[in-house]
Amino acid sequence: MTVRKTRTVCTTCHARCGAVVYSEDNKIVRVEGDPDSPRSQGVFCGSGLSQKEIHNDTDGRILYPMKRVDWDPKGERHPETRGTSEFERISWDEALDIITEECFRIKDEYGPEAIVTGQGTGRTTNHWHCRLNSSLGLEGWSLAPTHVCLMPLMLPNAFTLGIYSDCDGDMANASTIVHWGASPATQRSKAKMILDRIESGQTKYVVIDVRYTDLAKNADYWLQPRPGTDCALALGLMNVLVEEKLYDSDWIEKWTYGFDELAERVRNYPPEKVSKITGVPADDIVGCARLLGTNGPTAFQTILGPGCMHTNAIQTGRAIACLQGMLGHLDVPGGIPINVAFSAMLDDRITLWDPMKDPGRSDLFTFGGEDYPLYKVFGRSNDPATTFEAAITGEPRPVKMMVFIANDPLLCYENANRVHEAITSPNVDTIVSKDFYFSPTTKLADIVLPSSDWSERDTIDEELFGGLVISSERAVDPPGECWDDWKFFLEWGKRLNPEHWPWKDEKEMVLWRLRELLGMDMTWEEYVEGAYFKLDDGSGSEGPVYKKYEKGMIRPDGQLGFNTPTGRIEFWCDALARFGYDPLPDYDEPAETPVSQPELAKEYPFTLVTGHRLYAFFHSAWTNIPAQRELYPHPFFLIHPDDAREIGVDNGEWATIESPRGRIKSKAHVTYEILKGVIAVPRHGWRDECKELGLPGYGWDQANPNVLVPSRPAEPRYGATAMRSSLCRVKKGVDFNE
Ligand SMILES: Nc1nc2c(c(=O)[nH]1)N[C@H]1C(S)=C(S)[C@@H](COP(=O)(O)OP(=O)(O)OC[C@H]3O[C@@H](n4cnc5c(=O)[nH]c(N)nc54)[C@H](O)[C@@H]3O)O[C@H]1N2
Ligand SMILES: Nc1nc2c(c(=O)[nH]1)N[C@H]1C(S)=C(S)[C@@H](COP(=O)(O)OP(=O)(O)OC[C@H]3O[C@@H](n4cnc5c(=O)[nH]c(N)nc54)[C@H](O)[C@@H]3O)O[C@H]1N2
Ligand code: SF4
Ligand SMILES: [Mo]
């Protein structure tokens, strides 16, 4: 057998590094980074390398569709034995027939809204998932963590700056780089470039994070706010910019709306007051503001830390967007690039969303839509906590079927005990889970479906990161009968509504998408051969065009300015005011902190931050893979040395973390990285056993931070939850059984 070499792309995390896979006899023998990748330039990490073990692990993977033996879709369902009864192998045809018949039955009896389809973070099928929902008679995502993931940041950017994105700055050309609640673990391929620029004096560097991150040691300013107070910090930074007139008044006059009102608002936030709210020294606030105001262009990277996972999410996003607007580094090298290229990810031609629908979506039912109107309109999803309550109680409407594709809701969503009740609820007739391995949710499912991973599939990276289409080619055939999610949606969709799904296979879907949405007409061979296709930025010119707002190139109506109702950066935002928000950004203390809940804090004195990312794991996956588990063998939490001393917990010792929602076990990592009074539990949960290393798995309920996190109260109109600011207590030792 000769060794086959295939160039493709790793989709294990969002970095999307170019990969070269060497295989022999359908086994992977070696994986390397692709030096030709314009995204990763040959950088590749340990998680990506583990693809070899994952593909070759035919003992551990789910290989065939399966059905729980005592679950008969035409007879007894026995919901009480979910998780304990055996599975039997069935064919894909049987599985798809059962699922489709269930859908038709439930739609007839209860309406399509009683079917919930869940996905987690984007894993190359956002669009097909949404199209499948349209085939079911639903519109939108059905269930996705968009209430906490990126959207609470993107929406304020859209309302304020007219840019519907996370506004990732052009770090390669910036004079100041700001990482605001963005983890180095998620920036692997960019970290080198940032460090090189810092070292050569080309950029100043600011980190604003509740942890001392790996890159913070290189920072000129490291600001460590109390969790959930970033809105006040942004208002304080703007206070200094305004008081010291560190802004370009002509630009502000010409291109922004509501500056005087904003200036008045930020006068309420002088550095000393902001220092009291946030814990950041006033001198640092002043110094950092001066740096931002005088050493532009500034490239921000803001991800989950400051806003997305707090009950003041939307206003925090607004304050940071206003700060960026005030600095004015928009659509210039080193600032916020504005890419007007049309976004193919959720194009209506794929999702089949109806663009003519009433923007208030009064005709559409979503769980929690009345409570969270901004989420209903822009999140286009059911509110997760309301959905799980409905699954348990049948109120306000029943949930009869849940299909999870690349999502482990027990590890993903807040208040995991309640999610568990929902998944095991006798009111839900059918649970389907499609995954690589038996996740805690898959173990409880009625139908289990196997999945292929990135080296085993012929699909495409749908997110089109950085205006780049990266082709991918199957390097090895998937083990057993593993199907990729594209094929699953195609075959399920054909049964639900064949007109919506005319393609023969995934390759045809890829080529249709390129042709229809991007005007790229090519054969499969040309697509694979071409590897990396740079998309133009919509300006119609060869290189980037800057300051497009001065040229009438941003707004659909061709007028000068930004894509907001006023055509200006909206410091004052009437569109948000219509949803009941203050039209100016303002600070609200998060709902569950020692400040807002002093009584509860007597029992639960620590502020709990959950979810920071680690290099080795992607969400709850890969604690079973030796090369990854070895890096972080045990569940752990960060605790300040003073706090550890007071509780009497030593470094490396087991402890119990409790909240009013439940309790988990974790090992103390005693460190000055974290603020006094704050406990940080990483995202991953250590759910799976790693046999090779003899390390246990902790399932969904033993070490999963979401056991602790409340689902209520949430952000009042969008529903973002308190994943990064709630209360907990810590006790030395563990006194509950595994
Ligand atoms: N407390 C707390 N909770 C959080 C967060 C936090 O910071 N703190 N972060 C939130 C965020 S931002 C997000 S996006 C969500 C993410 O949540 P999810 O994306 O749902 O992540 P998981 O819960 O790990 O579930 C994903 C499952 O999909 C499987 N999988 C991976 N790739 C594929 C694939 O291609 N096909 C199939 N069929 N299966 C696949 C994995 O093995 C895993 O079991 O979590 C959210 N939950
Ligand atoms: N390795 C790996 N990479 C991933 C993922 C993964 O699971 N593993 N998940 C992917 C997904 S879906 C997402 S959405 C992204 C998330 O990407 P990021 O948001 O960059 O990553 P996080 O580590 O979740 O959070 C960023 C930082 O926020 C800080 N933080 C927490 N609370 C606060 C606060 O109140 N204020 C401030 N200023 N900082 C705070 C944390 O300490 C952390 O360093 O990562 C993606 N990449
Ligand atoms: S897991 Fe590693 S190799 Fe794969 S895309 Fe992410 S950073 Fe790149
Ligand atoms: Mo996410």
Automatic annotation (TrEMBL):
Keyword Membrane: no
Top-level taxon of the source organism: Bacteria
Coiled-coil intervals, chain numbering: none
Pfam families listed in its UniProt record: Molybdop_Fe4S4, Molybdopterin, Molydop_binding
Span of domain 4Fe-4S Mo/W bis-MGD-type: 3-59
Keywords of this entry: Iron, Iron-sulfur, Metal-binding
Keyword Iron set for record: yes
UniProt record similarity statement: Belongs to the prokaryotic molybdopterin-containing oxidoreductase family.
Name this polypeptide is given: Molybdopterin-dependent oxidoreductase
Source organism: Raoultibacter massiliensis
Lineage, opening ranks: Bacteria, Bacillati, Actinomycetota, Coriobacteriia, Eggerthellales
